[in-house]
Amino acid sequence: MKKEMFFAPQIDTIIKGFSPENNFVTLSMYLKMKDIYSVFSCIKPGNDDENRHIWIEVERGPVEAFGDYEEFKESDEVKSPEEFEQLWKEYYPEETKWYKFMTSKYRDDKYFYLNDKLFFIFQEKNPPASFNVAVSDYFELFINWLQERILIEIGKFSENPNAYNLYIQHNLSFTKRFGRIKRNDYWDIIGDTTIRTDRNLGEEIINKLMVCVENMNERNRPLLNKMTANSFFRICEICYDANDYFKTPGKTITQCEKYIKMADGRDAGLRSIDGDSPEAFYEWYHGAEKVGAHPWEICRGGNSTHISLFIAEVQNKWNISLAGSSIERVEETVRMAVALFDKNIPFQLRDAEEILRMVTGRDFIGIVPDTYFPRYCHNLFPRADNIIDFMNLGHDKELVPAIIEKAYWFPLEEITMG
Known about the structure:
Number of helices: 17
Structural class: alpha+beta
Strand order of the largest sheet: 2-3-4-5
Radius of gyration: 27 Å
Helix content: 40-55%
Distance between the termini: 32 Å
Largest sheet: 4 strands, antiparallel
């Protein structure tokens, strides 16, 4: 099969279609991947014996590699060759793009990733049949190209490991690195006052939050001797009213109706029990089927953008905790916390110290590579940094250089001989 030159847009198209279940391969391709793994075993990033990676720098190539102008024009994405070229450079602002090739091993199986996406599983005990033809020629060309590039990169590394690592450290795109930036610095760079939680909340609420957090340990006890459905809805109402969610003049809305309008809706029957009976709440809490239910999600949202008010039994008493630390909802959460504090409701604010630093701009935002979705990345950063909010660097020509300059960038893993 002929050699193929792949450019970044073509590699990205292949990555989008990656699926180890559907990437049927021929026996010859299987043997190529086995050879790649064998050659790759000579390197060892960091202290991890099972996971190895190397960086591949790929040219973005000519505009034709980005796509067919006539097809883009026909779909109304562009109206002229100039717009087509501008779109190409928006997607690929740099002349090269970096890809992380990684292998890992679990038991007898070996896994292959490109830009953190699994595309091949090597099973020693279950090789493909030699007559397997359910494979695209294009994918086979890609495997051939990948094998050649890996051999080239390993050759460069073997010739001079220090020079190789130095080149990566100086040239690897910051969009592929981990870093952190002080939120205050980020606010100054962005220049958008609407995202400044300190100004949006105001000095009075911020000061009350500080007092609330300082006293949290003393008040964080399951002091409620009983709990009912209506007690829960009343506490929810305090949270809702703190944010002025319901402003319809002349119309009275009950506590439960507010909950219905704002909550997730999957309450496992909480609205149906006797609202004033502690026994009914106790039986519901311990007996209701809650698989798939979200009774505590008092402000619905996505996986990380909802607000929850959890009720938990602790030694025959009831503990209340408020959770909502996403930057999109944290202002609402803070208003709720301050209102509960003012009403002398014993509760715990989850991530209280982190939230206080976040809304005052004293925390760090974690910067993750563009192959990561910036959510739930806590374990990728040192625990001492207390980072609970994350972002990708992006490609804005004006903002990115300023962010790069102000941010702290974590050292890259040095690749060594295995």
